[in-house]
């Protein structure tokens, strides 16, 4: 075979094109570590000496009233917002404050925003396929897109998100809940170590919420999952450890029952439209 044919061999992985990403080291500590993180917007401290750790494989729920700093915290972890002070580490090896957004994504941190952003005209299968191709560290898979490995991965993700029967249908005709699952599937295609999920059940039916609870709890163990959510019934259904944010720092942390009966937590929810439990 000629050199050129060798070059375009579909299943060939070009090592020199794959950027080096050193693995996340969690042997001696948490997968995510925030210490004394602060950020101000026009003099207002949105995040105020925030310290928080997430263990490898953990499912953590973050709750807190509007404006508590939940989304800003995710912006800091993903490199969208730079804090004024503090440290943010991914495992013991990666100082996230020295990385930009694409680098952080490539290290294995996936983020799901509130609004689903699937490609409506493409099929469910194609959406998953595309999200793999978009992963620059897997760029050679563009040429190997129909390889068995990619198909197997798509199949696996379709089962996980419960959309096997919808694989060939356009994403545009999926229900709101199904679109949210597809978007989680698109993140899973890149095998993230840590998944950040912002308000996954907003606008979902009860049935879709129950299915989402199953999906997220099933991901824990294989991935570390951080869920920010307002719906207390939903949080109760999936919660192991719950962290309550208030005015940019941790107000309480523990089991759902512990935080829900904490007088400080009850107080910050009083007068709001959310119930404490
Ligand atoms: P949550 O997600 O818990 O509701 P946010 O993290 O969105 O809270 O916001 C925390 C506070 O920081 C709010 O008072 C918000 O108005 C403010 N804030 C967030 N991002 C910005 C920004 N880019 N510029 C100015 N203020 C911001
Ligand atoms: Mg928010």
What does this structure look like?
The chain is α/β, with parallel strands linked by helices and 277 residues long. The chain has helices at 3-8, 70-77, 101-107, 124-133, 148-160, 176-188, 206-219, 232-238, 256-260, 263-269, and strands spanning 32-41, 44-54, 59-63, 85-90, 94-95, 109-112, 194-198, 224-228, 241-246, 249-254. It contains ten helices and ten strands. It is globular, with a radius of gyration of 20 Å. It starts with a helix and ends in an 8-residue tail after the last helix. The structure holds adenosine-5'-diphosphate and magnesium ion. Adenosine-5'-diphosphate binds at residues 41, 46, 64, 66-72.
Structure in a nutshell:
By secondary structure, the protein is an alpha/beta fold. About 30% of the residues lie in helices and about 20% in strands.
Main attributes?
6-stranded mixed sheet; globular; 277 residues; 4-stranded antiparallel sheet; binds adenosine-5'-diphosphate; binds magnesium ion; alpha/beta
CA radius of gyration: 20 Å
Global shape: globular
Specify the number of helices: 10
Bound compounds: adenosine-5'-diphosphate, magnesium ion
What class would the helix/strand composition place it in?
A: alpha/beta
What is the mean pLDDT?
A: 87
Strand order of the largest sheet: 6-7-8-3-9-10
Strand tally, please?
Answer: 10
**How far is the N terminus from the C terminus?**
67 Å
Low-confidence stretches: 273-277
User: Multimeric state of these chains?
Assistant: single chain
Helix content: 25-40%
Largest sheet: 6 strands, mixed
Strand content: 15-25%
């Amino acid at each position: 075979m000629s050199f050129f044919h060798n070059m375009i061999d579909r299943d060939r992985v070009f090592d020199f094109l794959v950027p080096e990403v050193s693995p996340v080291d969690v042997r001696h500590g948490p997968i995510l570590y925030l210490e004394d993180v602060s950020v101000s917007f026009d003099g207002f401290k949105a995040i105020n000496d925030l310290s928080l750790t997430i263990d490898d494989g953990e499912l953590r729920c973050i709750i807190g009233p509007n404006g508590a700093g939940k989304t800003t915290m995710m912006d800091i972890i993903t490199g969208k917002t730079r804090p004024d002070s503090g440290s943010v580490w991914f495992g013991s090896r990666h100082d996230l404050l020295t990385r930009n957004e694409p680098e952080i994504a490539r290290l294995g941190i996936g983020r799901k925003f509130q609004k689903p952003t699937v490609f409506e005209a493409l099929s469910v299968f194609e959406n998953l396929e595309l999200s793999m191709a978009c992963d620059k560290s897997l760029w050679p898979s563009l040429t190997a897109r129909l390889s068995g490995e990619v198909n197997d991965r798509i199949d696996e993700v379709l089962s996980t998100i419960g959309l096997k029967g919808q694989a060939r249908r356009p994403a545009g005709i999926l229900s709101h809940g199904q679109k949210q699952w597809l978007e989680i599937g698109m993140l899973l295609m890149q095998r993230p170590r840590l998944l950040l999920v912002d308000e996954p059940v907003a606008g979902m039916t009860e049935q879709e919420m129950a299915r989402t609870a199953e999906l997220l709890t099933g991901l824990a163990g294989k991935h570390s999952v951080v869920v920010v959510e307002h719906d207390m019934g939903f949080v109760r259904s999936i919660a192991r450890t719950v962290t309550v944010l208030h005015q940019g720092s941790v107000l309480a942390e523990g089991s759902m029952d512990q935080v829900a009966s904490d007088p400080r937590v009850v107080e910050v929810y009083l007068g709001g439209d959310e119930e404490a439990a």
